[in-house]
Amino acid sequence: MTTPVSSRREGDILIITVDNPPVNALSHAVRSGVCDALKDVGDAKAVVLNCAGRTWFAGADITEFGKPPMSPSLPDMIAALEDCPVPVIAAIHGTALGGGMETALGCDFRVFNAKAKCGFPEVDLGIFPGAGGTQRTPRLSGLGPAMEMCVTGKPIGATEAAKFGLADSIATEDVLASAIEFAKSIHEKRRVRDLPNPEADEKASETWRKFAATRRRGEAAPLKAIEAVEASVTLDIDPGLEKERDLFMGLITGQQSAAMRHLFFAERMAAKVDGLDASPQKVTQVGVVGAGTMGGGIAMAFANAGVPVTIFDANVEALKSGLARIAKLYADSAAKGRMSEAERDARIARISPAGGYDGFAGCDLVIEAVFERMDVKKAVFAELEKACRADAILATNTSYLDVDAIAASIGDPSRVLGMHFFSPANVMRLLEIVRGAKTSGEALATALAVSKAIKKVGVVSGVCHGFIGNRMLKGYGREAGLLMMEGAAPEAIDQALYDFGMPMGPMAMGDMAGLDIGYDNRKSLVAGEDYEPLASALQDRLVEMGRKGQKTGAGVYLYERGSRTPVPDTQVTAMTEALAKEHGITRREIGADEIVERCILALVNEGAMLLGEGIAQRGSDIDVVYANGYGFPRWRGGPMFHADSLGLEHVLQRVRAYAAGPHGKWWTPAPLLAQLASEGGRLSAWSKP
């Protein structure tokens, strides 16, 4: 068996090289190899720790997650680096992330390639660096930078690393050659563990606690990371490492980390479609029909990834307005320092207007993003069929409509599928890829490849009204609407679900999206069969009064001019009470627990229905959809994982209890939920046989 670690001498310098593609993960074999190589220092004056390939250690070996630890552990390897009798220099290129950065801190000095980055992304897995990162980093950088790296999880570049004292030298060319030269100039060790304790920094602690409370609301890991970093002020290194380890173990064995690790693997699994063996087409030019908010966002998503885009809108003024809005968004980003002016200009230049459908003749993929009406969509596809190459893939951005019906409107339905972006499309990570009954394997493979290329998380759905996300959302909104009729104030409903971890409550969300969207959508549905009319009775009245939400200054809530802050409205309270009386509903006090349970279990039961019907391939795909498209708290793992954590027997019992209630027709337990509850199975781990 080939070892991933080798060593060689270059004069007085011992060079240890790790070659463990693709990202030099710190596997057991790597850790063992490094420890063994350090035993053979001999008469070398210094050691350079180097990584082959495209990156330095980019983190732990994810295949070891959840398995019993094997010796030597990462802390053991770092201790071996520190105990080496001669100076050890890290030659860092690519990314030094997580355990990779902790390994670098175990070295005496760090030479960075000018383009290298380092960071501690562990917070996104519900943990923090647990192999000395919270104790060694602040001894070099001070508390503020250490907290920033641990709490945000965002990597920093070589220049910033040098500013923080984490990089001792920056190489503009060959980092290994520079590290060897640096090593020749070093004559004494300088272990980070031997540096003085950092000074207390109350301002930094306050700043990052506020950040954690708002930007990472509900998560335990950021606050524990701050506590660990603060311990470096008063504790010597070994007690500090013990404190760090105790806090780390409390997190990694907890529910939040389990939930976030579940999503980490689920997002990678979502790209795998059983039975799909087709190769994707090459996409070098994309077309977008519609220059509204969604169409413009889609165009930007491709332009950001370096793909040229042709955009067309039948309304000439709308096209001009859309292009101006895109240019302004890029200009604002450049003004805030998020991109250079040259990059701003390059992205704007990638988006070209077309005067008609014939402008799509050279496109490999065309995505329509026009008004959500079947007749409008079919008319667009008729034009695309005439204008586009026979092998071009045609995608609809519909949120609800029947993709098979759209596909059937042209001669070759195999080239049609859904690509449901979420607004703003240039920001939101989720892309629902809707596989029609006749969608070809090549078209599906292409959509998945495109999703990855534009840095989206693609999840495949079958065809049904609303696909995965919006079909499930219907039950969530239904229960919110019924709860309001039964006595819960809109602000109480929103607060309960916000406290659960959602970014905003369903009433505020409806106002933000526009109440008229749901109103128009219900026109094509059958009341009492497709939806519960009582749940949307208030919203329907509001729309008919011209109260469509934030855009009109009033919806369920009132909005002051220029403000997005919802203000409760006594007129809405009176209207709700009148509607309840009209429908014979006796209003009552409703607590936050019932609000959360009804809304969230409605999601869960509908998700189980989707799985049983084969609309979603696996339970984890549903969790990916909700974590990335609907703001379901990542630290709860998604609705399916959350249901598993509650216990499926308990979930089934509560669903049956609601099924026996006044609106029980909507609560028929999903057969798969009942099956898994009896078998001791898990919704989040279930996949289509």
Automatic annotation (TrEMBL):
It is found in: Peroxisome. Coiled coil: none annotated. CDD domains: crotonase-like. Residues 285-461 form the 3-hydroxyacyl-CoA dehydrogenase NAD binding domain. Keywords: Fatty acid metabolism, Isomerase, Lipid degradation, Lipid metabolism, Lyase, Multifunctional enzyme, NAD, Oxidoreductase, Peroxisome. Pathway: Lipid metabolism; fatty acid beta-oxidation. It catalyses: a (3S)-3-hydroxyacyl-CoA + NAD(+) = a 3-oxoacyl-CoA + NADH + H(+). Residues 466-559, 595-680 form the 3-hydroxyacyl-CoA dehydrogenase C-terminal domain. In the N-terminal section; belongs to the enoyl-CoA hydratase/isomerase family. This is 3-hydroxyacyl-CoA dehydrogenase NAD-binding domain-containing protein.
